[in-house]
Predict the structure.
Amino acid sequence: MKFTDRYILNLKPADKMQDIREGDGFGVRVLPSGVKTFFYLYRFDGKRRFLNLGHYDPKATPGAPGTLAQARKDYIEAKNTVNGGVDPMATKENAARERRQAPTIADLCAEYMENHGSKKRSGAGDERMINVEILPKWSQVKAKDITKRDVNAMLEDIAKRAPIVSNRVRSLLSKLFNFALEREAVLLNPCLGVKAKAVETPRERALSETEILTLWRELGSGTLIMSGDVARVLKLILITAQRPGEVAGMHKNEIDGRWWTIPAARAKNKREHRVYLTDLALEIIGEPYGYVFPSPVQKIVNGEALDVPITESALSCAIRRNISGERYLRDKSKKVYKRGPYKVERIEEPVNRIGVPAFTPHDLRRTSATLMAKEKVLREYRERVLNHTLEKMDATYNQHDYDDVKQAALETLERKIKRVLAGKEQDNVVDINSARGKAA
């Protein structure tokens, strides 16, 4: 029988795979999962060959990939190829081999994200830069054809509107081409010798005690344009002195009584880190269920909705929205663009609702470290609380957990913050060396 759209649509899956043929090699395969795949079955040089013509998509527009019409067109083209003495499967395999040996930038980026980028903490940021800055210009360009001149031209163009972003793109491009070098897809890294287009200076922003009081009051006022969970994350960063992304990603399973264990997979230095939770920290966390700070947007994987935590970029967006009245502009596909004057949407007049000059989530962590220093917490103990990378020998041979001093340091930080919030003078300062006690 000759296939019709209605016939294909109404095919029902069975317990076993079904191959239904129209005739002359053209058919459709129905899997138990319900997936339907068009195929062309033929013989070439005495060997039976199966050519996949694509999955059936009932929602595809007429004549588009995934329709019966397009599959039949591909079938006729493949059949003519066979009649002409050429194996279409071999042609397809050769094309795939060529893509592996001489990939386009789009191919390279896809392989990099699948095998490496998606496993990094900065994977989401890498993907945004690829989609916004790299692919629009170089998507179909062969990776081996990119020159140092091309790299410089791209970075200079980006630097005109976003100097710091150009440095990030330069770093990502270098990683991409090193990845390609390992796979012998290119002969050299065109980023070698390319200088950064913007001079960066380390941030030194730490909130003053007056700013801490103002921020804390506004975060609890309910008048800001941000969710209650975002406000809680910002408070907890200040209380625990941990990295914004690590705090935002906190899960119930990581909490055991008064101790929060950040797993190595989520820690920046890939080392498991234990954080003491003070009374104020536990009050902010409340009774957790799953992710402590769940994102209002679920992630869809293979058709299944998964819960995910609030992202660090969401924290930054919320702060900027309340200070400058701006947010990321979204396109029709709901993908978040990088910031920049040409991609930022003004949602209101710039009114500083927080009442504190611009700051970032990470500035709160720096503020916590500064407060501990003011309270005479020793530098070594502060570093343990902050989970900074240690000297190689110490990291290798010193396996003491330092729970006692981390507890004392964070309790000292809490007392300081409570005095600031109460508007009291800086009195009754407790020296950490006399406050050390066995961790609970």
About this structure: The CA atoms of residues 86 and 192 lie 43 Å apart. Residues 328-344, 425-440 have pLDDT under 50 and may be disordered. The first helix runs from residue 5 to 10. The radius of gyration is 28 Å.
